[in-house]
User: Fold these one by one.
Assistant:
Number 1:
Amino acid sequence: MKIAALTRLASYISRPSLASRTIVSHARMQSTVAPRRTPRVLPSFSLENKVCVVTGAARGLGNEFCNAFVQSGCTRLAIIDLKESEAKVAADELVQNACVNSDSKREDFQVIGVGCDVSSELSVQKAFEVVMDTFGRVDSVVASAGIVENYSAFDYPFDRIKRLYDINVHGAFFTAREAARSMIPQGGGSIVLVASMSASVVNIPQPQTPYNASKAAVRHMGSSLAVEWAKKGVRVNTLSPGYMLTKLTKTILAHDAELKKTWESLTPMGKMGEPEDLSGAIVFLASDASRFMTGTEVRVDGGYCVI
Ligand SMILES: NC(=O)c1ccc[n+]([C@@H]2O[C@H](COP(=O)([O-])OP(=O)(O)OC[C@H]3O[C@@H](n4cnc5c(N)ncnc54)[C@H](O)[C@@H]3O)[C@@H](O)[C@H]2O)c1
């Protein structure tokens, strides 16, 4: 009886009509509208007044990083991806979502979509020219563009191996170098290279030796560049995700339904991560909250690497 009564009471209270009536009468009583409450966070996590750039941001983790930046106050941002049309659509959607989820207006944002193949040095240089022409500075850059393929070592065609290194390794290097070229004259900035837990462990059962090696290279590239640029104010860190549910992994799982169960059983937290699970880490690394941190790897993998 007691539980039934409580359930009735709960459903009555949660009816929208009652909720809105309560708010209206409360507002009438007070005759003023309650001020909008902004969440209280440590100010150094804010990305207000920072220009952010994310590669591979038309979808997947890169796109989620952009969402996290906007939620943390960033209003000037460049979405870089292979196809300019997709980058522009993503830029438009980002602003649209930001306006729906807050009281911001379109004109509060300057978000651009830039087409660029990160495996081409010239293409990356041109993309940064567009960024600098548009914003005049760049504060936080994330190199997220990357690919994975699963071939056993004997079956992997060399042209595909080369393309993977061109995107994952050289793409990260070109992005970091152009970012630092812009950041050093302005006094510094933060660069985050997206590596992977595969930089530290050998994934099973799928074979992916060149991918694992490419991510180990990215992680050490981050530490090495961090030392080169430390006194110039440019910080370089790597973010290494575990198994996350994005287009990249969904493509692999589409061919093998059992694989998801295997990956989950190998992860101590027993599940794959959602892209938003990286939001806290990427905002921390991109913002002044991590200002004394450089050359470090942050792993967000549900505990995968510790067993
Ligand atoms: N998803 C995971 O589980 C996972 C785990 C660890 C690390 N990572 C790494 O995170 C990064 C992002 O992965 P994701 O899951 O978001 O992948 P995704 O395939 O969903 O998105 C990758 C994006 O990069 C873009 N891209 C690919 N080649 C490019 C190029 N040459 N130039 C410019 N853009 C290019 C794609 O168009 C796409 O928009 C990758 O570096 C990946 O290795 C992903």
Number 2:
Amino acid sequence: MVNQHHEIYDVTIVGGGPVGLFTAFYSGMREMKTKIIEYLPFLGGKVPYFYPEKMIRDIGGIPNISGEKLTEQLVEQAMTFNPSVVLNEQCTELEQRDDGIFVLKSDNGSMHYTRTVILATGFGTLKSIKLDVANANEFEGNNLHYTPKRMAHYKGKHVLISGGGNSAVDWANELGAIADQVTLVYRKTDFSGIESHISKMKNSSVNVKTPYIISGLSGKSGQVEQAELRNLETMKTESLSIDEIIVNHGFEIDIGPISRWGIQMENGTILVNGNMETSIPGIFAVGDIANYQHKLPLIAGGFNDGPIAVNRAKQFIHPDKELTHLFSTNYDFSK
Ligand SMILES: Cc1cc2nc3c(=O)[nH]c(=O)nc-3n(C[C@H](O)[C@H](O)[C@H](O)COP(=O)(O)OP(=O)(O)OC[C@H]3O[C@@H](n4cnc5c(N)ncnc54)[C@H](O)[C@@H]3O)c2cc1C
């Protein structure tokens, strides 16, 4: 069903990654009515998508934290001021009405009305490259995964991994220690990626098969049971019984819709000034998508972008009011 959200928000943050989440917290603390719109069915952006179980060690004051824990804490912090959260929607169109209100339209037809927009879209929406096997979607989300589940899920199982990049090799190495058996197929013979990780995999119990692809799948009740593997040199096929499949063929980034909104961009990123203002007044960009001199694509850097954008958004909405700086230690969280 298409929702028409006629309520007007002060700030609408497109993208619920780490930077969008922290920006939502800060926007709430500046007492602005805030909404987050996220394409994925979950919040956290690249962190839970790519590295939920990896340790992050380059955020000040946090010596180490897993991607999953960081996401959990960011979501908790972002919800402090109860922003509206819309999941499973890709913002595809943006217009500005004569009265200055921005109208964001999503891929499902929903409309969102807002005084300012903060784009925290990373490099765009993340879409995994799908396995090129006709019936693959029958098993997707059951025991065929594009974004792997928690490690413990694979304990004692026979896991088939398809792919040859860093992520596929990392997964093979990590699962080698926990799964009953790991088989990795890759269509080329030379792996790209970090050499030490590749050597570790080749010298481990992981059954590495190159140049091989998954050419067929069979199973029942939505569960893959057998994978057909094709040797691309001999073109012979063989069958393998498996419990789980992880497909790691990379992902496509769809910056698409935003690049058509008339905002000045460079190499797939949005040009901003020191106030995180884009070329369209009232639209700001923060995090990985924001491009300014000496920009580093780090989570910690994005945490600085957000408050700057929020403060400017507040001034944009209330041009006559003087904006004083606000520390969280000065804010009354009991009200
Ligand atoms: C493997 C890997 C390891 C990393 N390790 C570290 C590390 O150790 N330390 C560190 O600081 N950084 C690390 N990074 C970088 C870090 O993940 C990024 O800098 C960070 O995620 C940027 O946050 P963001 O919120 O700007 O964007 P993202 O995390 O990319 O989130 C953007 C969100 O916007 C959504 N979106 C995009 N377009 C739309 C749209 N049109 N409509 C609705 N939603 C949309 C996307 O679905 C996504 O969820 C790593 C990155 C990778 C890939």
